[in-house]
């Protein structure tokens, strides 16, 4: 299949996200290096694009390079033998500071994760957001052919459809929001909340992760417009906005609840690969008879890392019999390291790890094994398989694909998932995972204890059920559903 394929009944798929799956870096001797990007968005969409083909428009993670240079490097390093094409959007240092780190990650990200007190509502950030969204629209207008289906992802690019329309591009354009949508009470703190809502109305279809996100979005619409009528549709709701005396002519919108998933078969295959199984043998030797609790999180204050460490400390205090028997293996993947809250978060978690290890370490046993670097997939799969329990405890998360990947990697179905009720994944897995409120350190500690002593039969029953849910609704099913719901082939 040609890389320009990605056909939806003869039309190409044009994926758009801030970050491309591949980041570029200049080496000291002026050559180029590529790194795979981290995060749920890329890990879910990359396998889909590999299978379908098409074009992916986004930023390759580097500052102040000309678009032509980036295109040449991507053509040589990636496009030449990939199933789909990467099309670069070039960002300047100022764009990165004000659009990416600023408006996207110091305004929308904290606001949409219910942390509005840490938001920096800088007017310059908003200007940059509008400018860069216009730039993305401009690149899409050069890449997209008539009839192509434009699919925009995530909170960095809300204004893209509006800007496309302003450029006279009328391809179907849909949006998927990977992160949560907050309540109106929180959302309306944003000085530009009305502009964001109007921009969203320019999409033909919007997908969100959970029913709660959809309800919150609807709540925001009813705050802005006097007459909002809803009707149940096949994948969500159809919304009609009545006459509100505003100049916009857009009056209809469809919004669907479409929880994202993973490439289940690929994860299972990776877990069974020779590379991964060799590592399993090696890692098992390190842990002998210990119970291994695993955590894998991008560095982020939304992931509840300090709360997780506090809960683990509480478990060791309350249940002394767990000491020397249980180890928490926490892998943190570096992220957004120039944003001040992320720097603080890193300092806080490293201080806590040191404090807890200082309190409990005994000869031959360290309670928390902490790493701060990215990891290749085979190694990650090995860690998942060696672990007995996964501790996935974000304070707020759109979905959390680590929870799903951990389950897919449990080929013997023997593993326990402790999951935050505030992760989108809880809507699907909540009946079978051990659900916790991550702020409730005591009951999280009780769940850790419960997981350590759960009978094998119950562990397998719960894990089987979760694996089946994920297997029968994988990333490919998610894309098909989204395209159907969005009317991509109409
Ligand atoms: C989350 C977001 C993605 C983002 C990823 C990594 O998963 O939903 O849009 O790409 O985090 O964050 P970064 O800032 O490195 O792109």
From TrEMBL:
CDD domains: GT20_TPS
Example of a GO MF term: trehalose-phosphatase activity
Cellular component, GO annotation: cytosol
InterPro entries linked: Glyco_trans_20
GO BP terms in the entry: trehalose biosynthetic process
Coiled coil: none
Domain of life the protein comes from: Bacteria
Family per similarity comment: Belongs to the glycosyltransferase 20 family.
Protein name stated in the entry: Alpha,alpha-trehalose-phosphate synthase (UDP-forming)
Organism: Salinisphaera hydrothermalis (strain C41B8)
């Amino acid at each position: 299949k040609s890389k320009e394929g990605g056909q939806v009944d003869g039309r190409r798929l044009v994926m758009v996200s801030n970050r491309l799956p591949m980041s570029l870096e200049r080496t000291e001797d002026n050559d180029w290096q590529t790194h795979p990007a981290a995060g749920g968005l890329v890990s879910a969409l990359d396998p889909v694009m590999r299978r379908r083909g098409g074009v992916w428009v986004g930023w390759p993670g580097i500052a102040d390079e000309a678009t032509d240079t980036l295109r040449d490097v991507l053509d040589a390093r990636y496009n030449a033998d990939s199933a789909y094409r990467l099309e670069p959007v070039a960002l300047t240092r100022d764009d990165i500071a004000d659009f990416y780190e600023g408006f996207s990650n110091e305004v929308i990200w904290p606001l949409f994760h219910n942390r509005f007190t840490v938001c920096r509502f800088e007017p310059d950030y908003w200007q940059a957001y509008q400018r860069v969204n216009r730039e993305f629209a401009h690149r899409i207008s050069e890449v997209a052919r008539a009839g192509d289906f434009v699919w925009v992802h995530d909170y960095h690019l809300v204004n893209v459809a509006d800007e496309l329309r302003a450029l006279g591009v009328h391809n179907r354009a849909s949006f998927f929001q990977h992160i949560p949508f907050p309540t109106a009470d929180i959302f309306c703190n944003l000085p530009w909340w009305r502009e964001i809502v109007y921009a969203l109305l320019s999409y033909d279809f919007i997908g969100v992760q959970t029913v709660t996100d959809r309800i919150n979005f609807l709540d925001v619409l009813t705050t802005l417009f006097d007459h909002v009528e809803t009707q149940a549709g096949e994948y969500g709701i159809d919304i009609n906005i009545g006459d509100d005396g505003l100049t916009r002519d857009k009056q209809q919108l469809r919004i669907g609840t479409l929880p994202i998933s993973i490439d289940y078969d690929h994860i299972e295959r990776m877990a069974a690969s020779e590379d991964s199984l060799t590592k399993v043998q090696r890692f098992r030797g390190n842990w002998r008879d210990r119970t291994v609790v695993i955590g894998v999180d991008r560095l982020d204050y939304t992931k509840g890392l300090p709360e997780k460490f506090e809960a683990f400390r509480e478990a060791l205090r309350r249940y002394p019999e767990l000491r020397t028997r249980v180890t928490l293996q926490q892998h943190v993947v570096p992220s957004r390291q120039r944003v001040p809250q992320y720097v603080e978060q890193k300092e806080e978690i490293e201080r806590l790890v040191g404090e807890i290890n200082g309190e409990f370490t005994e000869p031959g046993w360290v309670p928390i094994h902490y790493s701060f670097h990215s990891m290749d997939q085979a190694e990650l799969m090995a860690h998942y398989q060696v672990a007995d329990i996964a501790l996935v405890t974000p304070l707020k998360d759109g979905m959390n694909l680590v929870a799903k990947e951990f389950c897919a990697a449990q080929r013997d179905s023997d593993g326990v998932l402790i999951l935050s009720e505030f992760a989108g994944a809880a809507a699907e897995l909540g009946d079978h995972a051990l659900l916790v409120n991550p702020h409730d350190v005591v009951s999280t500690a009780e769940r850790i204890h419960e997981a350590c002593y759960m009978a094998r039969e119950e562990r397998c029953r719960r894990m089987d059920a979760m694996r089946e849910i994920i297997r029968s609704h994988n990333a490919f099913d998610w894309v098909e559903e989204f395209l159907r719901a969005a009317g991509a082939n109409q």
